[in-house]
Amino acid sequence: MIDTKEPLIIVHVMKNYEDKRGGIYNVVHNLLSQSAPNIRQYVMTNKSSVAASEPYILNTQEQLNAIKPQIIHLHGMNGFIGKSLRFLNKQKTSACLVHSPHGHWHPYVQNERRFYKRWLANILYERILFKQCSHYFVLTQQEIKNLKEKGAVGQFEIVLNGLDHTLLNLSRKYYAETSSAFPEKENTILFIGEVSPRKGVLELVSVFQKMAPKHWQLKIYGPVPQRYEKDEAELQSLIKDDVSISLNGSIFGQEKYTAMLNAKVFCLPSFAEGMALGPLEAATLGCKLLVSDACGYETLPHGTVFHTYDQNQEGALERLMEHILTQADSFFEPDLDTIRHMQRSFEWEAIINHYFSLYQKAAVPRI
User: Which stretches of the chain score pLDDT less than 50?
Assistant: First the structure.
């Protein structure tokens, strides 16, 4: 894949490689799965039970120093990443620093943090990031805008996340060509994600409760972080017996894909995302998407799949939901052109090749 005289050594820095939820693990795990004779990859993380058996896991700054990487890729931004940044700055590393925000610099996310924490982070490590980092791999133009507003300068590259190979194979199985054998879908609006204010779940339940659409149900799946348990109680109090709303725990893998295959609509009324993966997964399995404009899909072809509203416009979610739920059955027929485009665009192999090509261009030659 890459022709270099010496191995290209890449270190991915991320908090908690054990947490397999979300986009950061998705990216790092799939990059590590790609083998090449002239590429060595490692993960520096603050927590991993596989460290003793897997040589690619780094837990100490001394281990990071010893391998002398040409590329250090910082995924997300938090205290652990900040600590690593301060160490690298002190060591005057010659490695090229790459940063992927994964939605971190969105104003909504920043405002969730208390002022003194934002101030302290800026003093301790954010200034170092924007001074030392030369390359930014982002998901959307919005992330570029957010970074530049924070003072970032350098090279910006848009690199999409991929979708699970099992999911794409399932999509091709059911949506390969015009057929009368498409999965039979229920009148279900599906939400899968963290049950938190950022994801807009309270708004979704409130709107659905107000509309009380006949013959439709709302199914919510996802974890409730401890700090949002009061919001879960508020959700429960909103639900009336005569409206079909169910709150469920997390689902993964085939169980999640089955729920998507069975639902007509997937909704994510989020206030802040990088590029949300859940709706993309659902779209490849034939769901129509009811999503806010914060989900990061501005550059994707929408076809008849993506239905987006302005999160800052009062009543926009309710109006779009009412429009979708009052459509004839033909409205929910699969848009095969858009689905096939997604099947091609979100294959990990092509995305990983793109990453490694960018790494090679960014790599600092050894002296």
Answer: 1-4, 366-367
Which CA distances in Å does 297 have to 136, 281, 306? 19, 13, 9
Please provide the distance, in angstroms rounded to a whole number, between the alpha carbons at the two ends of the chain. Answer: 24
Q: How far apart are CA 273 and CA 169, in angstroms?
A: 26
Q: Where are the alpha helices (DSSP H) in 68-175?
A: 79-91, 107-112, 115-121, 127-132, 141-150, 165-174
Q: For residue 27, what are the CA distances in angstroms to 47, 163, 186?
A: 18, 10, 32
- H/E/C letters for each residue in 221-271? ECCCCHHHHHHHHHHHHHCCCCCCEEEECCCCHHHHHHHHHHEEEEEECCC
Q: What is the distance between the alpha carbons of residues 113 and 118, in angstroms, rounded to a whole number?
A: 6
Cα distances from 98 to residues 71, 104, 346, in angstroms, run 7, 15, 22
This prediction's pTM: 0.88
| Cα maximum dimension of the chain | 71
> Residue 9 forms beta bridges with which residues?
40
Q: Report DSSP state, residue 160.
A: P
Residue 40 CB partners (closer than 8 Å, separation 6+): 7, 8, 9, 10, 67
Tens digit of pLDDT for each residue in 35-91? 777 899 999 988 655 555 577 888 888 888 888 999 999 999 988 888 888 888 887
